[in-house]
Specification:
- By secondary structure, the protein is an alpha+beta fold.
- A hairpin with a 7-residue loop joins strand 8 and strand 9.
- The longest helix has about 70 residues.
- It is elongated and about 120 Å long.
- The N and C termini lie far apart (about 90 Å).
- InterPro entries: PDZ, PDZ_sf, Znf_RING, Znf_RING/FYVE/PHD, Znf_RING_CS, Znf_TRAF.
- This is E3 ubiquitin-protein ligase PDZRN3.
Length: about 325
């Protein structure tokens, strides 16, 4: 719903009025057909009727409504009277400053905080009323045996009935205890839901961590085995003591420009006393389903002796 016209200081442009409530637009929304309404006016209409409230009655859904920010900023700059003008406030502020003013307006309604009073006064008068005028303000304690607080009204009347005062005090305590139990039950329910959510998130995180650890462990094992094998191959050159090698001649046909294997280069071993060396080029990886993986093809650790550069590549190699 919009703002009442008589609250504004001076005349308001008709273009700033809602076509439904005929008040100054509050949080204006526009339709695709160009009509502008208060958000609180047009949304219930569109949800129920599914059409524009204007005469065009065009088909419309809530998601098609758009905020009109320039128009909203213009409205927020209008001068408006305080909502408590009828209670005596004469302030006129910018609409955008109204919420801040209402929070501290001296003419806002405020209830006396003494138990048993409940009188509504101006905010500026509450403290004085509670201190000097309220009949429910405490003035001491009963000296007749109950020891309960004695109000100004009861003192003026000559005291109170202790039995009645104790029953009322007990009822107030029971009501407060019941409210605390309800609040505690509500908080326990909320904490239980939160705990279940956190436990589920923790379990999911632990499961994901375990799966990730297993994947990395598997990769680590594979790479370690491959490195150990390559290290043994490079450290012990073909033809060494206790080793037998055989020569192979293979013809590999390229598949999409690839022969389907990777190589690794060895380094000479200058410390070998017998003059042997681990220098050479070795097969380090065979691509599945590639040319080199076919029956009778290359194997990991094969040493490449010679290779042609034709599309059908001729490869000479030795194998332990």
């Amino acid at each position: 719903m919009g703002f009442e016209l008589d609250r504004f200081d001076g005349d308001v442009d008709p273009d700033l009025k809602c076509a439904l409530c005929h008040k100054v637009l509050e949080d204006p929304l526009t339709t695709p057909c160009g009509h502008v309404f208060c958000a609180g006016c047009v949304l219930p209409w569109v949800v129920q009727e599914g059409s524009c409230p204007a005469r065009c009655r065009g088909r419309l859904s809530a998601k098609e409504l758009n905020h009109v920010l320039p128009l909203k900023r213009l409205i927020l700059k209008l001068d408006i009277k305080c909502a408590y003008a009828a209670r005596g406030c004469g302030r006129v502020v910018k609409l955008q400053q109204l919420p801040e003013h209402l929070e501290r307006c001296d003419f806002a309604p405020a209830r006396c905080r003494h138990a048993g009073c409940g009188q509504v006064l101006l905010r500026r008068d509450v403290e004085a009323h509670m201190r000097d005028a309220c009949d429910a303000r405490p003035v001491g304690h009963c000296q007749e045996g109950c020891g309960l607080p004695l109000t100004h009204g009861e003192q003026r009347a000559g005291g109170h009935c202790c039995a009645r005062a104790l029953r009322a005090h007990n009822s107030a305590l029971q009501a407060r205890l019941s409210a605390l139990h309800k609040a505690l039950k509500k908080e326990a329910l909320r904490a239980g839901k939160r705990e279940k959510s956190l436990v589920a998130q923790l379990a999911a995180a632990q499961l994901e961590l375990q799966m990730t650890a297993l994947r990395y462990q598997k990769k680590f094992t594979e790479y370690s085995a491959r490195l150990d094998s390559l290290s043994r191959c490079v450290a012990a050159p073909p033809g060494g003591k206790g080793e037998e090698t055989k020569s192979l001649t293979l013809i590999l046909h390229r598949d999409s420009g690839s022969l389907g294997f990777n190589i690794i280069g060895g380094r000479p071993c200058v410390d070998n006393q017998d003059g042997s060396s681990s220098e050479g080029i070795f097969v380090s990886k065979i691509v599945d389903s590639g040319p080199a993986a076919k029956d009778g093809g290359l194997q990991i650790h094969d040493r490449i002796i010679e290779s042609s550069t034709d599309d059908a590549r001729l490869i000479l190699c030795t194998r332990l």
